[in-house]
Structures are given as C-alpha cells and as structure tokens.
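Researcher: Let's run the pair from yesterday's discussion. Sequence first, then tokens, for each.
Model: Starting with the first of the pair.
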Amino acid sequence: RLDGYEVARLADFIPEQIDCFVHAWYDAVGPLRGLRPEEIKRQADDLSATIQARERLQELAVRPLLLTLMAGLHIWNRGRLPDGRQALYEDAVDLLLDRWEHRRVDRDDDGNRRELEPSVTEYLGVGKDKIRAMLNELAFHAHAGQADLTGTADISEDQLAGALTRLDSRHGVRAKPLIDYLRYRTGILVERSDGVFTFPHRTFQEYLAACFLADHHFQDRLPEPASVPMCRWREALLLAGAMVAGASK
C-alpha cells in the first residue's frame, strides 16, 4: 500500500456489469486463444447465460476475481463450465492455488526472464499436495470456529504463519518474511485487513473444509459439527458425502 492513499473496497458487480465483463474478457482473451469472432460471441453469450441461470454462480460472479476465474475455467474447458458444483469448486481452487503459488518473474532490458521470487512450494521445500492439505485443515478449523454463519472466517496472521512454518521442510523459514511474501499474492487466501486473512468466498471455505472432512473419515467427526447449528455444516457435509461416494465407485 502506498503512503498517503486510502484503501477502497470495490462494490459487487450487478448483473449488467457481469454480462459486460464477460463479453469484454472474451473479446480480449479470445483472439489470444485463436478463437474466431463468432466463437468468441457464442462462448461469451453461453457463459453469461449460464451464470444468470445458476444462483450459486451469481453469488460468485459479483466478485471480479471470481468472475475472472470462472471465465478462465470456461475458456479452458472449450466453452463450458465443469459439470457439478464439486468439479467446479475443485477446478476453481486449483486455479486459485496456482495463482497464489506461482513464481514471480519479469524481464530484464534484453528481454530475458528473471525470477523475482520462487513459488510457495519452492520457498517451503514441500509439494503442492501438502500445501493443499494444510489449506483444507485451516479451512475446517476456521469454519468450525467462525462466530457468524455467513461470510468468511478470519484467519489471523499467527494462525497462517504457524500452519505454513509447520510445513517448512528446511526448518529455516521465518514467519514474518513468509507472511509478507504471501500478502501481495492474489489467490486462495486474501488479506482482509492488517494481519487478518480469509478465503475469497465462503464457497471455497466450505469446499476446503469438506475436503478435510472427506480425507479424515468425516463420519467419525459428525458429533463435533453436530454440536453447533447444522446450517453451518450443511454445505460442507453434502460436498464431503459426494466426494466419499464418488471415490467409492
């Protein structure tokens, strides 16, 4: 943040702005993907219509970051979004994690690429699967301890630093520089306020919590979530059940 500048929060998109964004995004990105003008219009119309027809997609699309994510998934899948919310969330989380985790590079005066920062996996010396497991657990505990039943949970800098440094295979990463390293990376975690992080939407918090439940025999954990209002866990348990059922086929 630059000294002397106030922080402003973007307002949510309204339906007309969502439609305008989708078509402008496709007009910009479509030619780079080799799409013909008629394909660009057809796929943009399809994405806009799909969002307007599905309430859960509308809830995500009001956020510019998440709408961009959906557009990326749509064009990557050749003009369609993944079937089913579980597949949609999984692909979206993968893209968000990739954005959070990628290397930062630029080019020198001669046009040669140079690395400014390594990826998170390289920084910590662990695999991407371990980072994902950490995020699942972080989401589960944040969801369980959230006072409100709407919105996303606060994750303190200390909680995040502790979770990340426990992953450090080299035992040499200091917490404060690691948090600073992640603070300016748009992706699966965003800084809500100074020293407080959160997931970009409750959908992702619930999905990652569901992944933790599915990986840790959620049937045995039912008494724990059942001790709080059931509406807190309804979505996460439905998703976890779908994951377990799909894995058993």
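Model: Moving on to the second of the pair.
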Amino acid sequence: PKDIVGGDFYWATDIDGKTIIVTGDCTGHGVSGTFMSIVGITLMNQIVKEQGITDPVIIIEQLKAGIHEVLLGTEENINRGGIDLALVVINRVENQLQYVGANMPIALLTQDDLIIEKGEKYSLGGLGEVSQEYSVKSILFEEGDMLYMFSDGYQDQFGGDENKKFMLRRLRNLILRVYELPLGEQEKVMNSTIENWMMNANQIDDILMLGIRL
C-alpha cells in the first residue's frame, strides 16, 4: 500500500474443482480505498462462498450491482468511487482459464508466448456504468505456465534517471526475465526492481502484483 492501508486487494478460493481469483484496485488511497476493498471482498464472499456461483459473467454482474448499490448510499463517492478488477476462473481439469477484466489486465506466460489480456476499459461502480457489459475470454494453458495479475501501481510508478513511469513495456520485459525462477525469487527481483527504479521518488499509488504457477 502507498499509505498504512490501501485500496488494492486480492481474493481467492477453491470451489467445485475451480480456483477463482480476483485482484482489485479501488478508487483512492488510505481509508477510502480500504473501504472499497472491504466492499469488494465482502461481495466476493457473498457471491462465491455463500451462493456458490462460479460463472465469471454472473460473478461480475453481481459485483457490479453490489458495488453500485453500496455507492448509492454514499453520495460523496457516487461519481468517483469504483473498482478496477480482474477476475480469473481456473479449471485445472480442462487446463482452461476464464478471464473477465474491468480496466485491469492479466499476463499469461506460456511456453510459446506472453499473452496480455486487457479486458474492458471501464471500472465497476459509479453512475452511468450499470449498463456496461463484460465479456469472458477463455485461454488454454499448460502445467507450469505463469499467470500474473496486477494493478497499475507498478507500471505507473515514476523513477529512473529521467523520473519517468516504469510502463507496461518494462514490466513485460521484467516478466520475461523472471518467469522461470521459483516464485520466492521472482518476488525478490520484482521488489528490488521497483525499489531501485523509484530511487528518491515518492510512491504514487498502491502496488499489487500477484503471480501464480499454473
């Protein structure tokens, strides 16, 4: 987190032979971002764990409705509240990954290629968003492939000799450099890379990077 608490969160569970993972980037930092994170986590528990829903389209639609309902009760945040979100359903029997994105990409590194899926260009929450529809992308994977889910905090961080953003291009090259390493080693390299990049610059956003060996 940028502050003591933040607005980036992740959530995961296994249900009916599937692994469901969500990463979220909520509007704001600190307490306001944490409030939205709690909303997202609470809704995922209700939708998946309590209701047993595993269809990614239904999950995202219920998330959208739930977030909008919460924001209707908070006039101060109705126009600017929301969550960028990536939702992945992993079926290890069929080696298939289903992805729905709300302004948050994923990266899948297979033995052949690095696939970056960007999803839709709108967030969950706020007025004028309820009518937006989200589509599912299905991707086949092989055992040992790497999945990365991340907020924009890493690539948007300023630093380097010219105090510029890290950018998705550098993140893509970093992933290609570390994906074969054990996960603990990948974490160390990613942490040290962004810390060295920042140099004397301030952290501008919450940073979330989730790596999963499929």
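Researcher: Give me one sentence on the second I can quote.
Model: The longest strand covers residues 18-26.
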